[in-house]
Structure formats: structure tokens, C-alpha cells
Amino acid sequence: MRLNYLFIPLLAFIGITFSSCIKDEALNNEADIEIATIPEEFILSSPIISNDKVTFTVYKSLDLTKVAPEFRLTNGATIIPASGTVRDFSKGPLTYEVTSQSATFKKNYTIEFVNSEISTAYQFETFKEKAGGFYNADIYHVFYENGIDEDTGKEKETFEWASGNIGFAMTDGDTDNPKKPSDFPTSAVSNGFVGHGLKLTTLSTEPLGPMMGSPLAAGNLFLGEFDLAIAVSKPLKGTKFGVSFTKEPIMLRGYFKYKRGEEFQINNLEKNKIKEDRWDAYAILFEAGPEDVLYGDHDFIDEKIVSIARVPESQKKETSTWTLFEVPFQYVEGKTYDPKNKKYKLALVFSSSEEGSLFNGAIGSTLYIDEVEILTNDENENPKN
Amino acid sequence: MNFKYITTILICALSLPIFSQEIKVKRQHFFNTNTTVQIRSQFSIGGATPLGLPREIRDIKSYNPTLQLGMEANFTKWFTEEQKWGIRTGIRVEGKGMKTDAKVKDYLTQINYNGAQVKGNFTGNVKTQVRNTYLTFPILATYNVDTQWTVYGGIYLSATIDRSFDGYVYDGYLRQGNSTGQKLIFEDGKQADYDFSDEVNRFQWGTQIGAEWKMNKNFFLFGDLTYGFNGVLKSDFDAISFSMHNIYLNLGFGYQF
């Protein structure tokens, strides 16, 4: 049929247009440190790598005056000083510059080494303001702890507390009305039990959060890491509990005030166990190699867990005056503290809604916490330290 | 729906010449001497496509032209008794659309994340669905090759009466701001929508060439190509780093009075 004369060239033309070949891949524009390493024997806890910072938690046996961290970068990227360069980290964090394969983008990383033992008393006096959210316009608090540097005798930051604030900053993007620290679920207040204190509030993520499957955000603070990149798709896997701990904890204590929010919302009925909102604080000692953590969905069931101190239901009451809570660590059956053969991490978690990780809670539930301490058994120090 | 109204108006308009024929006015004037009136219906295969795929697009995993229909009424004035050369204009209501699933690397886009419009560079998979309806005025030169074949070509002007250009990103990650920004990983069914419907150009113009083949005195088949000179999306919209053009193959049949 003569129609073919018309059709074939037309189809050929369309074919050429749409199959116009996939071009060669462009050079990478990313400039990430993907993996950071030092000799394994010095590593206490796997380095935490964020978008512009790498934190190594190391044994005191590592001589910080000459460390040669090695880096694996985005394919094709380069780093200055070069991977493996010996540098003196004893005076504090140092900067590295990563340049993308395309040479178009550069990113500065701060590399820090933490070798001081984690403190066991937390006054919540030290915090800083950080900008976050999509427009970097939302300001939230980040608590950190100081310790005395044994070499210099000066006070220096030993670690930052983790919280979901950085994720909460992503729940809306109103440039005209940026969020203040007090608008966040986790913040510092000036009227603590002594000095400043910690305030945790269960907040609504409306109007936009519910559509994304996270209708509320409980205030939380914990020892560990909140990994925003992962938390986007899997909030509980982005919540990583635990920092290395070298003592035998025997008691968790501190002071609290609590006011329950009005209406208890149950968004996850399947796993719901409680009828009204209540606060939560717990500490878990668990066996852990450098890479092991407890994820947000641990539910107190994990074979790594050695002992647990959790504020019992009877103490999770409403009170407007500072009230002491004191909870002993209880060993999981069959587990003992064995510092000669095992390494441990400690998870310490505070939340304004016990089932906050299930998105069950009452908007407005407010927990104040201050002067927290982990009492340890000094006779059982970890000789490896 | 816009489309229905316009179709109705079009059909009414088309029925006018039929009535006028019945009246059998024999007076000859410009509009009934050496003229042809056609109605045509078509379906379109094509897409809003960059001219040469940009490097950000690593793979087109699927492409679906979707069912895009159109209707046209046109009027041709032939210059001579032999009806060799003529000029044609008309009105056409047409859909132009497609669905694609592409793999991209470092692709500048703007997504809706928890209500915030986030610009960034996405590496992963992008699904796109385009459904635009245009009201188009072709201005074409026509040439009768022989008694069966007619070829035509010229330009068209289009007004966009219904705009939709949206989709979502999945299985990948966004770097907030630029390629070195905070990484946000989308996986396990987590996706982020984008909607550029408001950024679709209200006006389109381009070129059209094609041919008709007469089956008998009244019925004919046709095929033509349209290519949009200006981008589908507004030129000041910078959340996609390359310009996309409407390129469509239209196939259909018509009736000539």
C-alpha cells in the first residue's frame, strides 16, 4: 500500500528523535567523604560521617599529634591534604577540602577526634543554635557536653546529643515564618532544676506532616546519631542509639516535670500498648563492636542488650514540681558485665511521648529533664581504656 | 471540562457548512469558490522532549505516548481552478502528553518535601506525566500532488487551555541546594512529588508538515509532524536545566466536504 511510503519516513524520523542517544555520563559533581578510616585498633566507635563533618571516637592510646586518616571519596574526587597525610589533631578539629571530579564543586569537611571518656553526669547547661530546614532559616538547639582535656587541662566539647530536631525542621518550608528554637520538639530552657534544662514537647507536624505519614513528633534527646539522609525514608533506621561506654552502669537518675497533652492520638493501633500519653526515659547497656547500634525500633528486644534501666510506669506521672527519678539497671537474663572480653555501648533516651516512635502521643505533652546522672560501679572499670 | 465544551462548539461549528449546503445558495464568492472544508480527528504520539537528551538523563526506562486525541476543522482556499496550491487555516483542539520513567544523575529539579518546595540535584528515578490540551490555529500552505495526495506545511499557534506536568522522584537521593548539599535518600517506596503544571507555557508555536491520502471522494487519511519552537515550560523556570519541546506525530482520518 502506498501509505507505507508516508509512514516509514515518518516513523523513522520519530524514532531518531526519541532514541537520540544517551550521552556520555558527565563527570561527578559530588564531593563526599564516603568512608573515613584510621587503624582499626584505635577505633572505639565507627566514625560518624555527616555532610560536612567526620567524628572519630578513639582510644586514648592513639597519639593525636600524628594521625593519618584515610578517606574514600566520591568517585573521581580529590582531597587536600591528601588521604593518609599525617596531621596533628591534638589541638582540635582540622579542615579538609574535597573537590569534585568535575572540579566544579568544593566542600570543606571538619575532621575531629574524640578520645575523652563520655561523662556520666549531664546538666544540660551547654547548647548551641544551629540553622536547619530547607532554607537554613529554622533555628534549633543542639546540646553538647564538655570535658576536661587531659593534655591541655582545658575544657573542650566531648560530644553532641542527638535529637530529631533536624528532621522536624524539614516538616515545612515557610520562609516567611522560620521556626525558633522554642518551636522545636527538643529545646533548652533557662528554668531548669539547676540552671538550664532540657524541654521535650510532643508537637503536631500539621498541616503537612500527616500527609507524609508522620502526624506528630515527640521531643527526644539521645546518645547516638540522627542520620537525616536515612531518616527521610526510614525514620526509625535513621535513629541510631548508643555511644561507647567503658564502665558498668548501675543506676540512672535525674529530675523531671511532666504535663500530659490533652488528646492521646493513636496512629499505630497495632503496636499500641498504653491508653494515655506518658513520658519515657531509659538507658540500655549493650554489647557492641564499633559499628553496632540500637535502632529506633529496638523495642527492648535485641540479643546485644546487657542491662536496662527504664523509668517504671509508676514514676511516669504528671507533676509540676521537679521530681527525682531513680532507676537501677537490671541485667537481662544470662548477661553479665564482662569488660575484659567485651565492648559496650550505652543508649540513653528521653522522650515526651513513650510511643512517639509509633506516632502515638498527645500533642502538647511536655517533659522537662535536668541533672541526669548515670551512676557506675567504679570497682569494675574497663581495663582496656 | 474544557475539552468537552470546545468539542461541542467545534461540532456545532462544523454542522454549519452542512446546513448551508442544504440551502443550496448558488451565488459564488470567495468563500465557496475553489475552497475545501475538512473535519479531522487524530491521535498523537510524541512527547515533551529535550533536543538531544541532556547528560543528566542516563536511561529512559519506559515511555508511554498515552492516548492523546484531537479534532480539527479547517478551511482551504485554492488559488487556481486547478486547485494545485492553496492556503489553509482552521481550529484544532488537541491533547499532547506522555508518561516517562527515566533514570537520572545529578538532575536539577524541585520537589515537594513535606510541603516545602525543595530545589536540589536528584540522582535516581523520575516519573513524569504530561497532559496538556491546546487550542491550535494552523496556518498552512497546501499542494495537491495528484488526485490522491496532498502535502501541506506551515506554522501553528497554540493556546494552552488545560495544563498538567507532574510526577515524582523515587529510589534515589536528593542533594539539597546543589550537588554537595545535604543528602536525602528516597527508598523503600518513599517518593517526593513535583508539579510543574503552573510552569507550562500558555502559548506555543511551531511548525507542522504532513500529507493526506484520499481513500475516496470524501474520506482521507493523514499523518503530520508538529514541532514546537518554544519550550513546553516557561523559559524563566530554572528548576529544570534544559528546555523541552513538544514533538508529535499525529495520525488520523478526515472527511472532506
Automatic annotation (TrEMBL), chain A:
Pfam families, sorted: PCMD
InterPro entries reported in the protein's UniProt record: PCMD (IPR025112), Put_CMD_sf (IPR038653)
All copies of domain Putative carbohydrate metabolism, residue ranges: 124-374
Identification of the protein by name: Putative carbohydrate metabolism domain-containing protein
UniProtKB/TrEMBL annotation, chain B:
Residues annotated as domain Outer membrane protein beta-barrel: 38-232
Pfam families in the cross-refs: OMP_b-brl_2
Positions of transmembrane segments: none
Name of protein: Outer membrane beta-barrel protein
